[in-house]
Automatic annotation (TrEMBL):
InterPro entries: Creatin/AminoP/Spt16_N, Creatinase/aminopeptidase-like, Creatinase_N, Pept_M24, Peptidase_M24B
The organism's place on the tree of life at top rank: Bacteria
Name of this protein: M24 family metallopeptidase
Signal sequence extent: none
Length: 365
C-alpha cells in the first residue's frame, strides 16, 4: 500500500499546493491513516512544496507500512505537539505558507502551530482530504467487504446461541469478542443491544436487563478491519411467534429500508434517498420517528460524507459506501432498526452492492 499512499499524497499536494510554495499540515487521525497507513496515535503529516513528506510521530513509532522513499519519520517525545514541530520544519524549509486543518485543530493547538511557524502565514486546508476520501478505490471496498463479512459472521453465531436470560451488556460484550476472534481490529463503534421496551429508545446503550420471551431484540454492531468500518442493524423477536403489532412495525421499517436501498444510484440526490424512506413512514404516521437522517457515509470513520438527510446537498457517486438505517422507536413499548452497509454502483454493474447480508426476515428466536 505504500505506493497507493504516496500517490494519494502526491495528488493532494498537486491539488492544494500547485507550485505556490504552500506546505500542507494534516493532523486529523483518519486523514493520516488515508495518506500514510497505520500511524502513531500522536502524529502529524507535513507535505512540503519540494516533495518531501514528513510524518512527525511518537518516539517509539516505526515507519508505517512498507519502505517509502518519499516518507520520512521524525520522532518526537510525548510532550511535544507534532503539529507544532511540523510547522517549524515548514518554516525552516522555506515554505511560503502553511495550510492546516482548522476544523480539526483546537484553538490552543492552532495558536501553538502559528507560534512555531515564526510568522509563516497560515491558511485553511479545509476538508480537502475528507473530500478525496469520499469515493473509495477497490482495495478500500475490499476492506469494507471483509469488515462486513466478519460482522455478519459474529451476529450469525450469536443468533444460534441461547438468548433468554442473558443481559444486554453480556450480549454486546460477546459480539465484540466475536468480531475480534474473526479477525477484526475491534468494533467500529460501541455495540448496541436493546431488548423489550429498551428497543423503543433510539441510541440505547446496553444495560443489565435480561432477555425475556416476547421481547424485540435490536442489535447494531460493526467490525473495524484495516481501519475500515461497517454497520449492520437487525431486529428479532424472542419467542415462538411475534405479536401482530411487532409484525406490523417490522414490515413498515423493512419497506422504508427497501425503498431507500433501491434509490441508491450514481447521480441520485442524497436527500432523495432520505425522502424515499421517509415517505413510506409518513403514510403510516411515523415520519417523525425516523430521526435526522436515513444513512451516512462510512469508511475510515462512521459518519463520513455523504449524509442522507432531508436538507443534504450533493449527489451520490460511484464507489461511495453508505449506510441505510431507518428505524421506528415507540418509547416504553419497543422499536425496530434495520441497518445495512452498501456501495453505490451503476445499474450496469448490478446496482448497489449490499455488504451486510444477514437475513432481514423477522426471525423468532
Amino acid at each position: 500500500m505504500s505506493e497507493v499512499h504516496a500517490a494519494r499524497r502526491a495528488a493532494l499536494r498537486a491539488h492544494c499546493s500547485p507550485g505556490d510554495g504552500t506546505a500542507l499540515l494534516i493532523s486529523r487521525p483518519a486523514n493520516l491513516r488515508y495518506l500514510v497507513g497505520a500511524v502513531p496515535a500522536h502524529a502529524a503529516l507535513l507535505l512540503t512544496p519540494g516533495g518531501e513528506d514528513v510524518l512527525v510521530g511518537g518516539g517509539g513509532a516505526s515507519r508505517p507500512g512498507a519502505p517509502d522513499d518519499t516518507l520520512r519519520l521524525l520522532a518526537v517525545d510525548g510532550d511535544t505537539d507534532p503539529a507544532a514541530t511540523a510547522a517549524v520544519l515548514a518554516a525552516r524549509g522555506g515554505a511560503a505558507s502553511l495550510a492546516v486543518e482548522e476544523h480539526h485543530l483546537t484553538v490552543a493547538r492552532y495558536r501553538a502551530v502559528r507560534a512555531a511557524g515564526g510568522g509563516l502565514p497560515l491558511g485553511d486546508l479545509a476538508r480537502a482530504v475528507e473530500h478525496r476520501r469520499l469515493v473509495k478505490d477497490e482495495a478500500e471496498i475490499a476492506a469494507l467487504r471483509t469488515a462486513a463479512e466478519i460482522t455478519d459472521r459474529a451476529l450469525g453465531e450469536l443468533l444460534e446461541s441461547i438468548l433468554v436470560g442473558r443481559t444486554e451488556r453480556h450480549l454486546a460484550l460477546e459480539l465484540e469478542r466475536r468480531l475480534v476472534d474473526h479477525g477484526a481490529d475491534g468494533a467500529a463503534f460501541p455495540t448496541s443491544v436493546a431488548t423489550g421496551a429498551n428497543s423503543g429508545t433510539a441510541g440505547h446503550r446496553p444495560t443489565d436487563r435480561r432477555v425475556e420471551e416476547g421481547d424485540f431484540l435490536t442489535v447494531r454492531l460493526g467490525a473495524r478491519y484495516r481501519g475500515y468500518r461497517c454497520r449492520i442493524g437487525r431486529t428479532f423477536v424472542i419467542g415462538s411467534r411475534p405479536a401482530d403489532w411487532q409484525i406490523e412495525l417490522y414490515e413498515l421499517v423493512f419497506a422504508a429500508q427497501r425503498a431507500a436501498r433501491e434509490s441508491l444510484a450514481p447521480g441520485t440526490e442524497c436527500r432523495e434517498v432520505d425522502r424515499a424512506a421517509r415517505a413510506v413512514l409518513d403514510v403510516a404516521g411515523h415520519g417523525d420517528a425516523l430521526g435526522p437522517l436515513t444513512g451516512e457515509g462510512v469508511g475510515l470513520e462512521m459518519g463520513e460524507d455523504p449524509r442522507l438527510a432531508p436538507a443534504a446537498m450533493g449527489r451520490l457517486g460511484v464507489r461511495v459506501p453508505v449506510t441505510v438505517e431507518p428505524g421506528v422507536h415507540l418509547p416504553g413499548r419497543g422499536g425496530v432498526r434495520i441497518d445495512d452497509t452498501l456501495v453505490v454502483r451503476p445499474v450496469a454493474d448490478g446496482g448497489p452492492e449490499l455488504l451486510t447480508i444477514t437475513t432481514k426476515e423477522l426471525l423468532a428466536l
